[in-house]
Amino acid sequence: MTDDHIRSTTKDNGLIEKRQNQIIKAAIALFKEKGFHKTTTREIAQKSGFSIGTLYEYIRTKEEILFLVCDSIYEQVHQRLEATIDFKQPSIESLKTVIELYFRLMDEIQDEVVIMYQEVKSLEEDDRRYVLEKERDMISMLKWVIVSCVPAKITAKHAELLANNIFIQGQMWGFRRWALHKQFTLEEYIDTQLFYLMKAMDIE
Amino acid sequence: MTDDHIRSTTKDNGLIEKRQNQIIKAAIALFKEKGFHKTTTREIAQKSGFSIGTLYEYIRTKEEILFLVCDSIYEQVHQRLEATIDFKQPSIESLKTVIELYFRLMDEIQDEVVIMYQEVKSLEEDDRRYVLEKERDMISMLKWVIVSCVPAKITAKHAELLANNIFIQGQMWGFRRWALHKQFTLEEYIDTQLFYLMKAMDIE
Amino acid sequence: MTDDHIRSTTKDNGLIEKRQNQIIKAAIALFKEKGFHKTTTREIAQKSGFSIGTLYEYIRTKEEILFLVCDSIYEQVHQRLEATIDFKQPSIESLKTVIELYFRLMDEIQDEVVIMYQEVKSLEEDDRRYVLEKERDMISMLKWVIVSCVPAKITAKHAELLANNIFIQGQMWGFRRWALHKQFTLEEYIDTQLFYLMKAMDIE
Amino acid sequence: MTDDHIRSTTKDNGLIEKRQNQIIKAAIALFKEKGFHKTTTREIAQKSGFSIGTLYEYIRTKEEILFLVCDSIYEQVHQRLEATIDFKQPSIESLKTVIELYFRLMDEIQDEVVIMYQEVKSLEEDDRRYVLEKERDMISMLKWVIVSCVPAKITAKHAELLANNIFIQGQMWGFRRWALHKQFTLEEYIDTQLFYLMKAMDIE
DNA sequence: CATGAATGAGGGTTCATTCAT
DNA sequence: TATGAATGAACCCTCATTCAT
Q1: Quick check: C20 and C57 in contact, CB under 8 A?
Q2: Cβ contacts (< 8 Å) between A196 and chain B: which residues?
Q3: Which is it for the CA torsion B5, B9, B14, B17, positive or negative?
Q4: Å between CA of B164 and C1' of F11
């Protein structure tokens, strides 16, 4: 059983990307609302603005949609983080900036974060590994920032833990919003978390 | 979702509880392995040791099984935590003990934690609210411990945040095990997290 | 991906057989009318007298229905042939009897023969091989009858060819009925084919 | 199904024929490999060397492709047979030649024969009748050769049967190749079949 | 003439749930 | 109480066919 099906008869790569973005956008909206499993491919097609047949010209399986969604989210986060980090001149200031940006980003893409958090496990082995790899990259970036910006000596292990903490504190803002948003504005949340992180790293 | 969960057809309350516990145990094992959505009621019945017909004598819908599972998990955590907290004599020591116990507990019931974390959203509105209520209780307990045990003045808001942080750091140990267990033993994890938490609370 | 699905929850073997026979009967009627590919599983279920869900309690895939059909047909032919052949006392008379019986059988189960002839290729590799094996058995039986009943010396090769010829002449009666039935009654067909076969084997 | 097969949109008859021949060739290759039903129009278009849109400029439905294929095969056989038959000087020699040629032809176009044999039933009523008509013609030719070449008196009925036998013996060589080719070379097959046919017709 | 993106009816299959025994 | 056969809504996906460019 080879893949000799003539699938996606579509040739135009620009169109493929455009359509896939429509799909991703529609899927995020729906997954957010009812989760991956309760969302049907027909709904995704409809929300994407085309027929079920057309949907399947641009994706192979429903699962691929989830992968596309996860991939696109991490890609986004990754790029934004990378663009902010100043690899040349590490400083406490830039450390704070990065963490703050990360928190703001998590706030901005709350829905996407929730989806990722809850649905990655629905990905098949390979896809999941691929996505988690990207996550690891992100944490490495945070870790690097910590190690290089903090004046006090921080072991790799400690930096690892702190990076992981920051990582999930960011996610928590989106993921546990019903618990947190009632008590904190985004500004307060960032300030307080930063306050304790700085303390932990012996800054100021 | 409260007492009306009890089937009308079935009388013997002892039996109900016994059967439901069989179901919960089977379901946890299955959900852990393949998730809620990919587990079938037939499988749960089989693993529970009785027929599909019998299964439906003790639960009304598949979703109710998930509720039962979530409820039982939180109940467990809640009880263990409550039993440990010394409401009479708050001290730094008891603070540490509670946090440590919580982390150890999360380690012990890793699989259950993962299930909860990923599947609560599959619960219907009412059930989800009920479960999250329990979660809020837990965090309140942590918050109370912080406020009453820490000598330094900590505002309610700060305590709230720290409680939330502890809460998810515990879950993270189970939830992100593929990332953390490679780098930390449980002891190291507890020690390091405690180290930074103490620092945050100006202890020692 | 193992077969750990809990399929056919049905335990009663007698029932399974009964239901499968219903399915086979319904399928034969439908395949005869519109062929395997144009027949839907829903139609088969309906003609079988139960719902689509029930159908799938007794078969795994649509293809399995085709296999069941093919298998049952050959089984039938095989048994009838075997019951007729007198392995103890080979004689010209018994040779004639066997051939005649075979032709009459082919007449009796015309529809089934047509199905087999046209649809075996739709079976998957393994199933097809299994079915063709049964066909080979049948031809072997015919060959054995020829070799042991005909007085004149007939080489194995010639017997093989004659057996194959008889085999398809029988099938042809069902398969090319639109061409033959207009010109021959079954009796005439049998007589004339037998006439030439006897000639070929130097009998009389 | 006759001249109205020609699309109205398309004018140039030479081009039509050229394209249809491309289609037929591609279709035969594909049908041989996976059968009519499992072959998609997209695959046929691709193998034909043009787009799916263009394919539909030259055929109206997928079924028509099957018709074209069947028609072309019979046309071929018909022409080859007709060219060989010496209608002027019937002789035993020419009888043998015709039969031999027919067997060789069946060997040559084995794949096509298999396709026809298995897929004619997928044709719609009208098309099927049209194709079977051609088959009848072929058998008539064989019958005519038998009647006119064989010295012994053979009734029309007997000739009819013999013609049918020859016809399917030829097809059998292609159709049951897995059974026959292991035991016979083409030469042996022809010789042996001829041997028995001659015997049947009292020749030599 | 040629293209290929778009369509959607329809097919195979699953599985939560019921109910007669 | 326990059972498991029966149900059918609903899901994912395919592919013949059309039509604007």
Answers
A1: no
A2: 161-162, 165, 200
A3: negative
A4: 39
- Closest residue on chain C to B53 (Cα): C9
pLDDT tens digits, residue range B136-149? 999 999 999 999 99
Q: Give the burial class of A130: count Cβ atoms within 10 A of its Cβ; 0-12 exposed, 13-18 middle, 19 or more buried.
A: middle
* C47 neighbors C30 (Cβ within 8 angstroms): yes
Q: Which residues of A touch B179 (CB under 8 A)?
A: 132, 135-136, 139, 164
Q: Tell me, yes or no, whether chains B and D touch by having 3 or more C-beta pairs under 8 A.
A: no
**Could B168 and A168 be called an inter-chain contact, meaning their C-beta atoms sit closer than 8 Å?**
yes
CA separation, residue B107 to residues A172, B99, B162, C203 (Å): 20, 12, 20, 89
Amino acid found at A197: L
- State whether A192 and B165 contact (CB < 8 Å): no
Q: pTM of this prediction? A: 0.90
Residue of A nearest to D41 (CA): A6
Rounded to an integer, what distance in angstroms lies between the CA atom of residue A21 and that of residue A47? 12
Region C78-90 average pLDDT: 87
Is the confidence at residue C76, as pLDDT, over 80? yes
Nearest Cα neighbor of A100 from A183, A179, A170, A182 is A170
- What confidence category does residue B8 fall into, taking pLDDT thresholds of 50, 70 and 90? very low
Structure tokens at C100: 């005649």
Supply the Cα-derived Rg of chain A in whole angstroms.
20
CA distance C155 to C161: 10
Pairwise CA distance, residues A159 & A144, whole Å: 8
Q: How far apart are the CA of B156 and the nearest CA of chain A, in angstroms?
A: 10
Phi-psi region of B47 (alpha: psi -120 to 50; beta: other; left: phi over 0): alpha
Residues of chain B contacting residue A192, judged by C-beta atoms under 8 Å apart: 157-158, 161
Q: CA-CA distance, D27 to D24, in Å (whole number)? A: 5
Give the CA angle between residues D100, D105, D106 to the nearest 5°.
100
- Cβ-based neighbours of C116, under 8 Å, separated by 6 or more: C69, C70, C73, C74, C131
Q: Tell me what the pLDDT averaged over chain D comes to.
A: 90
**Distance of residue D77 Cα from the nearest chain A Cα, in angstroms:** 33
What is the model's pLDDT at position C157? 95
Pairwise CB contact (< 8 Å): D184 & C35: no
Domain boundaries, chain C: 13-200
DSSP, residue by residue, A46-77: HHHTS-HHHHHHH-SSHHHHHHHHHHHHHHHH
Q: At B150, phi and psi to the nearest 5?
A: -80, 125
- Kindly report, residue by residue over B177-194, the tens digit of the pLDDT: 889 999 999 999 999 999
Q: Do A9 and D52 touch (CB under 8 A)?
A: yes
Question: Which band of pLDDT confidence, cut at 50, 70 and 90, is reported for residue C151?
Answer: confident
For A13-200, CATH gives 1.10.357.10
The answer for residues whose C-beta is within 8 angstroms of residue A7's C-beta and 6 or more apart is A57, A60
**Model confidence at C2, in pLDDT bands (50, 70, 90)?**
very low
CB count in 10 Å sphere of residue C124: 12
Residue B5 — very low, low, confident or very high, per pLDDT cuts 50/70/90? very low
- Neighboring chain D residues of A56 at a CB cutoff of 8 Å: none
Please check the confidence at residue C188 and state whether its pLDDT lies above 50. yes
Give the total residue count for chain D. 204
Task: Enumerate neighbours of B (3 or more CB pairs within 8 A).
Answer: A, C
- Mean pLDDT for D196-204 is 91
